[in-house]
Records
---
Amino acid sequence: MAEARPCIITVAITGSLPQKSDNPAVPISIAEQIESTQEAFEAGATLVHAHVRDDAGRPTSDPDRFARLMEGIRKHCPGMIIQLSTGGRSGTGRERGGMIPLRPDMCSLTTGSCNFPTRVYENDPELIDWLAAEMLRYGVKPEIEVFDLAMLFNAVAMAEAGKIVSPLHVQFVMGVKNALPADRETFEFLVRTLARLAPDATWTGAGIGRNQIVLNRWSLELGGHCRTGLEDNVRLDRETLAPSNAALVRRVVELCAEYGRRPATVAEARAILRLPPAAPA
């Protein structure tokens, strides 16, 4: 396994839905999130994708809460890559990027708008440019969230214009109703298109709901990286609630062996994503 290609395992610990969900394992408070992230880190995750909630459990972009979360993760998960969400459920307009000055390793950046199951996920060009400029200003690497094909082309155009620093890191999100379906031919087309447009880019596959393990398998097979966690899939199958974020990470670790891959170390993950070595806690 020492010569196997490393896979960065991202754990999306909480999500931004306004309810806790039917699974008590979903971490909500900062303390719960830190504990869950540490368990996932020890299980093999080297990148954490994070949202925060207010005292009532509602999604928020409160920089103070993000700062407390980052402090705890850096203390208990040395070197783990911290990626904060700028997603639309946690705020409106520029407040969505209020945590960027905290200088996390990465932030999510969706480069277009699309339909979600019950609403429009709106990312207007001015907001996208502002978020990208803030990430550039504070040295934060964006993870490009691709919910449809246009977002991939938009990201490449932004990189060519100097609005995003190359090499890109792209996440293909599949299985959201009204957006990209979890379709194998479509997935392979996206991977090929990224390789054609941005040959030095890295990528991750993220599947929603029951498609989580499907995208895990496809990503491992095609040489990409994997995202898992309770944000995307609170169930292991139709009847069984996922017991923890760590359990979902361990499932990906087991899948790695099936595909001749292995979980990336912290140092490897940072090198693959062209991130600097971790700062001291």
Note: The mean pLDDT is 94.
---
Amino acid sequence: MEFVVKIVSVAVGGACGAVARYLINVSPLAAIFAKFPLPTFFINVVGSFLVGFLVVLLADKLIVSENLRLALIVGFLGAFTTFSTFELELFELSKEREYVIALIYLIVSILIGFVGIISGVMLAKRL
């Protein structure tokens, strides 16, 4: 029964993360740049920050159930972050011969995503 609760926790978190990702993709944020995939970039940076923040906060700072950690980190952030979409967008940009935009997108996504992880960890450690 405990295993079923864990599965349900991940599923509920995943459903919420998928809906949050969808809402960002249909928001006015999506229309700001014509070619640069800003919503996915935003999702990946915010997701990176939240992973770093929640891993420290929920493991070191707060006493929470394993089910809540699973729901938030594995479920919500697993569905919310969009690495596979990121890869597909890079492929599409390359296919359209938008090599400079693809390279910029690749570099800033990885670098700023990494900064997001570090920032989340540092903020959580200060709490």
Note: The chain has a mean pLDDT of 91.
---
Amino acid sequence: MINFVTGASVHLQLGRAYAMEVDTAKAKVAYQDFLTLWKDADPDIPILRQAKAEYARLQ
């Protein structure tokens, strides 16, 4: 990915879109991809905290 932050956020947006479509399986995969890319990020970053909360609601 040319721009890491932008590329990673695509996964998050896909996860949100799939969640809105109630396609939980695809949403989980997209969120997992995002969280994998951000696994070493500061856990206090708001977008990361929000993504983790959204992913937890899919479980």
Note: Residues 27-59 form one domain.
---
Amino acid sequence: MLIADCFIKEDVLSATVATSSGSGSLQDRLAAAWQGPVEWDGRLARYTTLRVGGPAAALVKPASVAELAALLPVLRRQGLPWRVIGRGSNLLVADAGLPEVVIVIGPAMAAIRQAGQEGSERLVQAEAGCSLPKLVSWCTAEGLGGLEFAAGIPGSVGGAIAMNAGAWGREMRDVLHALVVVDETGGVQILPAASQVFAYRRWEHAPGVVVAAGIFRLQPESPEVIGGRCRGHLQARREKQPLEPSAGSFFKNPPGQAAGRLIEAAGLKGLRVGGARVSEQHANFLVNAGGATARDFYELMKVVQEQVAERTGIRLEPEVHLLGFGEAGR
């Protein structure tokens, strides 16, 4: 049986809700309604792997799932715009920043535990803020195989589920047993993964639902064997992927095609706009070569899209999420 009470039995942070949800600035309304810590105008470049991005109107870092479940209803009642980020490994945030509450789910929500057994498989529950490298290492030490494909993916559990992250022919949906989610009413639910719709780099879900944890189906196996597979994947990544700051694969692979090969065939390796550059090592990586701005990456992305489309008729679709660029950047 899957039990989520470890996430909801804590005392929920008290929140005083203002009677008027539509008046006052975002900062005033949040300060009046939320008693937890808030970072005002926090620069998002510190929370993205591209190291670019302007300030968020407010940054809130829940210390637990219970605190997240207390926060979301406050934001809803106040009518405050919000979004969730994890380790920022798949984001391009505009230089102007985001005029909203950004919820950063990080190391404070990173617990891992065994959560039962189904037949020969073991269930492992990891909170959304847990990094994938940490989870893979923990599972390796415990002799639980299945997540080796995630070795070297720099994201968090929550982000990896929301993006259905994958590598080496495997995706999160292949090992996901269930999701623990929080909605805007503060409700905490366990959703069987089989009831959810996953697609290429996407999880289809209702608005206002946040992944609080993932529950994975893993197989008992020798730690040495699991570790060997992880080391093989990590070595392959080091050989093929750049070390400079990046957001991982920038573009989605078109059906039957590899975005990196299309970009390379268009002669775009090394192309640079400001401090943003197409990696010479792997053309589907746009890297921060030093001093890049979000606008540099955005303009470089457009040049790559236009030149690949002109050469092949294929318009590459970003895999990274573009935040704060308006309709043109969606």
Note: The domain at 110-240 is CATH 3.30.465.10 (Uridine Diphospho-n-acetylenolpyruvylglucosamine Reductase; domain 3).
